[in-house]
Amino acid sequence: MGHGHHHHHHDHSHEPLGEPLDEGAAAARDLTIPDEDLSPAQLSRRRMFRRAGLLGAGLTAAGVLGTEAGAAATPAAAAPGGREPKDGYLWLAGDHHIHTQHSGDGIYRVIDQVRHGNAYGLGWMVITDHGGTTHARIGVDKVNPDIVAARKAIEDTLVFQGLEWNIPAAEHGTVFVAPGRREVETLKEFESSFDGSVKDAGANTPQNEALAIAGLNFLAESVRRRRIPDALFLANHPSRKGLDSPHEIRGWRDAQPSIAVGMEGAPGHQAAGIPKPHGPGGGRGYYDGGPGADSFPGYPAESYRTFGGFDWMTATVGGLWDSLLAEGRPWWITANSDSHTVYGDTARRGPGGDFDADGRYEDPVHGGVPNTGAGDFWPGFYSRTHVGSRAFSYEAVMDGLRAGRVWVDHGGLISGLVVRARTAGHGQRGATLGETLHVRRGDRVELTMEIALAGRPNWAQFVPTLARVDVIQGDVTGPASDRDAFTTPDTKVVQSYEVGGNSGTVTFTYRLGRVDRPVYVRLRGTDGNRSAPGLLGAGVDPHGPQIDVHGDADPWNDLWFYSNPIWILPRR
């Protein structure tokens, strides 16, 4: 269905995309400013925004069938750090999975992680120390002053407080909230009441699955009652141990679609695959185990490995992620560092202290020798989650994540991505990532892709070369009868473009043809170093990512980017 063409051009300019919001509106929408710090006029405006559903959880992701694309919005203005808007949004790189000395297996101070993330270009970060008894008792309280101090010290990076939830009956997940007076209180109660480690609820039982849903309900109710401005949950390294069953993922999304919005498409710990003696010699993401007693029995052996550094659920065309998208479920992917101990760093955990008593380790000290046994990178050094944000604010980043305006990359493979689906020949703005384009049945639809190539060295000091871009398309068939389904038969790579360049901008147009049924499209790109037919066959995915080799998987030699989807729905 359809064909494509492309052309190259070099363009390093930015077009003006509108004037900034007036200061009163900006202050009213900035939820880091408490109500009592606003002027009467600003407070009145904030109340108006709340009544209109334009703050916090008011901007929730609807199901695909109820989502219109291209809603009128004030274009984004330039943000701190010299960030300029593109296609009406600030595309802010970020990381929602970062550990500190307040984790039982962490080392670094909050400010260490934030300074590095800021230096590597991140516009937002989430501190997610491990949930557990000690963290719930004192860790949530202890880390907060460090986060507040980092927010003041590094003003052009937004720093959220969150935690890594031990999901009852499942794996780990990021839970984070928008800043506010009750962020600590709410996270503490959530962790004490719903953490699988705290509640001894790790086993794969219906009761524990219900406890996970209850935790999501608690977050949603906390937002509804304005106890906190907003909250989000994303599943972390979902295939690593096989604990996140398909029906649990569907259950989280169905229970609270404004809270449970996605998963790590690529896990952290990407340095773990660097071969010995120069690296740890393990599996990328530490995906080097196998099934256990609580693993979902239907998952195949290859699901416990990564593919081009990406989780099996995401990397398999026609696999679990696509099965959710084919149902019309908005479920987004991210890519994060999971930074605990950084590869090549000389810091070591400070001596003395008692983690169980103090809720933290002592500050790190210089160890003298680079740690080549560590499996992590600094936030922003290798993995990036790019969010299309309407403003430089906590609420706008959360709204962008919730809306699915997200693409991810490894190693700086590309520096920018703008994707639009529109009715051919109509010249309208159309739909971007995470949105739905509604068309008349039989309308011709085209997908345009504008890709800013790398152009300068990444943090490994080479300029990545984008070799190929793939368009992946699937039919939207509605809810699956089997809630443990993890394949869908009508998704495949429909077009590939050879690129072979590393400067300027390339533009491609894929023509879907006349659309007579609901479909979705998503993108994937690669440096072309390691490809193989996909797990569901060459007819579905002729040149997908190869399975990563345990002990021999240098992440810099295998770079990919992925986008979230756009749906195209013909009106009946």
UniProtKB/TrEMBL annotation:
Polymerase/histidinol phosphatase N-terminal domain boundaries: 94-169
PROSITE patterns according to UniProt: TAT (PS51318)
Name this polypeptide is given: Histidinol-phosphatase
Region of interest (Disordered), residue spans: 1-21
Compositionally skewed regions (Basic residues) per UniProt: 1-11
Residue stretches in coiled coil: none
Annotated transmembrane regions: none
Gene Ontology MF terms in the entry: 5'-3' DNA exonuclease activity; 5'-3' RNA exonuclease activity
InterPro entries (alphabetical): PHP_domain, Pol/His_phosphatase_N, Pol/histidinol_Pase-like, TAT_signal
